[in-house]
């Protein structure tokens, strides 16, 4: 029992570390100005921030496909461990390949830093399932701890990025043809290749350790095999499984997805809720720094008090909302989240009329309510569809990222290109996300677990049967 407990704790730590590294998505807005500036000033490639944002768009576009492909096909066939190691390898080599690609073309940067690195995000799926299998009675709290790493990524990585590439806090210079700010200092630009190589090394070391920690709880059949004294019988069983059983697992997963998940209304409400929040995450992580540089001169200030410290807010969001979900009905939790998020984003432009301190406070309010959904949705999916297929729900709902990618690319090009960069209209557009999320949350059917949470809140006796059924 003690051994199981230790492995369960290590699995939570491993999931946390994987999320910590893969959460680099949130620091994309921090590193984008440096790579874009290098390409303009050193490589002679005239890219704008809206052009370079396509790297992030491809990353998210690919992410949507691989997160669906992993639980539907790859994990049932090869298992969680192989998926973890392969994914982490792809994620680690992305930056070092981009170091050479940025001297050639934007297209190669998109291929390496966008597409190849995004394949590595398949490693997220095992972190959404394995830790909760060890602690099924605390799904929300466990997912809050695991996904807190995703938010803390900015706190861990943003200062490292700036320490390597811009330790003297050199300010960017306004471009003559637009209101965008780019770095032109030769020393800063010379450090950009070193930055990418260093990131690859850090990713590889941490992810390898995390993969070693990702122990899976044994099923009853596995325990029976391990207790067998006939090693040849075990080897033969594993060989047969490689040939036939794993193909059957794929078929079973696809059949369950078609027959049980797709007809369920709850699946679509979860899907569109995720879709709604991803609108906010992609938009703000891509453009927050470019927006801030239009009225805040210090890149060090933005990175330290927004880029890094917002990671604290994001991790707190995951832990708090995950813990609360174990005690409060889903509708209450997510409805509150969407209302606060919509108000904060819709009024963000006001900070240009105030000062940099107010911008920091606004961004913290956004991150404090934005990250929590990525702890809540895996826990809720596991609660509704079970531990075997919860990962399938989380992975396939990520397909909505593809639509979000197109929306952000389109509206970013329309609203944030030219001499007058109208961030006010852009942020009002982003408010579509929390509005959709609130609507989907209010109409999601309650589960038996939600009813139990409500009864505990109201100090009522719990009913013996659920009065609500998902269809």
TrEMBL record:
It is found in: Membrane. This is Major facilitator superfamily (MFS) profile domain-containing protein. Keywords: Membrane, Transmembrane, Transmembrane helix, Transport. Its main location: membrane. GO terms for molecular function: transmembrane transporter activity. It comes from the Eukaryota. It is a multi-pass membrane protein. InterPro entries: MFS, MFS_Riboflavin_Transporter, MFS_trans_sf. It comes from Tigriopus californicus (Marine copepod). The chain crosses the membrane at residues 9-32, 52-75, 82-102, 108-130, 142-164, 195-215, 266-288, 300-325, 332-351, 357-377, 389-411, 423-447.
